[in-house]
Structures are given as C-alpha cells and as structure tokens.
Amino acid sequence: MSSWRFCPLCGAGLEMRAVGGLPRSHCRADCGFVHWDNPAPVLAALVEYREQIVLARNHAWTAGAFGLITGFLERDEAPAAGVAREVKEELGLDATAVTLIGVYPFARKHEVIIAYHVLAEGEIRLNEELAEIRLIAPEKLKAWDFGTGLAVSDWLARRGVG
Fold first, then answer.
1. Are residues 23 and 50 in the same domain?
2. Model confidence over 20-34: pLDDT tens digits?
3. What rounded mean pLDDT belongs to the chain?
4. Domain around 115
5. From the record, what ranges are coiled-coil (predicted)?
6. Do residues 103 and 82 both lie within one domain?
7. Where residue 87 sits, what CATH number does that domain have?
8. Which of 11, 40, 155, 159 is the most buried (most CB within 10 A)?
C-alpha cells in the first residue's frame, strides 16, 4: 500500500480507487495521475568464481548474514548486462558467462528479483557496500526460503543437488 498522500502533478489529495482491477492511489482532482506502485526490478548474481560460489555480507547486515550479489536494474539497461555490471562494481570481477536462473517475487521489499548464474574471473576487490565474502563449494551451498534463496534452490536443483 502506497504512503503517498498528495498528487505529484497537481497537489490534490489522493484516494484509493479501482484502476486496472486493483485499488490504487488516484488523484482526487482527476488530473490523470495514478500511482501504480509497481515493484522495483532487482538483479541477483549467483557468482561462480574459481569453482566456488561467492556469498557476500553487506555492511548494513548483521554479522553472519550472507547472500548473493544484488543491485537495482538501471534505466535502459538489459538485465544480463546489469548483473555483469553489479558483479564488476561490487566484487571487481569480470563476468565471462551470464545465464538466467529465474524471476522471483520479493513482496517483503516490493521487488521482483531477476536472478542469474554468473561465471566470473579476475581478482576480488570488495567495494564500499560489502563487509566481507565467503567462498563456498557448490555442493556445500544451502538455499534459504525467501528472496534470492529461491534462485539458489532452483540452481541447485538443476545441478541435481538439494
């Protein structure tokens, strides 16, 4: 549910009305504004580096919490190019192959996750977002039951693990 209270076009108040079959914030003055409140597209990379999987911990996360490399899709960017960009920005690695794993809803953060398996090479250099990484043998990787963990589960299943 949107927290917007006023129309960004004309300043009138917003009210909930059915638009496109769903309740949406709509301008009371009928200037035409509808807040569609679509989820943000997020890219996730299950990075395979030197036959191991890279899990990363963001500085904002609690100690011991690790996940995939993620970032937002930029305007006019192809998702496969965007995930390679995120791997380069966050780990300093070059993507040599990018394969779609799947697309997953992440309602808790109002996002849709587009997940890829990324083969990468180079030398790892963490950017300012990441506190640390762990390298995990693929056979020791365990999926979690939300967000990017669903992509990990699918990737493991395709490999005959899990």
1. no
2. 888 999 999 989 999
3. 94
4. 40-158
5. none
6. yes
7. 3.90.79.10
8. 155
- Residue-wise pLDDT tens digits, 36-88: 888 999 999 999 999 999 999 999 999 999 999 999 999 999 999 999 999 99
Going by C-alpha positions, the residue among 100, 113, 127 that lies closest to residue 70 is 113
Do residues 14 and 86 both lie within one domain?
A: no
Note whether 14 and 56 are same-domain residues: no
142 vs 162: CA distance, rounded Å: 8
Which of these, 102, 113, 108, lies nearest to 40 by C-alpha position?
A: 113
Q: Positive or negative, the Cα torsion across 133, 134, 137, 141?
A: negative
143: pLDDT confidence band, cut at 50, 70 and 90?
very high
5: left (phi over 0), alpha (psi -120 to 50) or beta: alpha
Contact between residue 57 and residue 126 where contact means Cβ atoms under 8 Å apart: no
Helix (H, G, I), strand (E, B) or coil at 4: coil
Residues 80 and 54 both lie in one domain? yes
**pLDDT number for residue 144:** 94
CA–CA dist 56, 162 (Å, integer)? 21
State the pTM of this model.
0.85
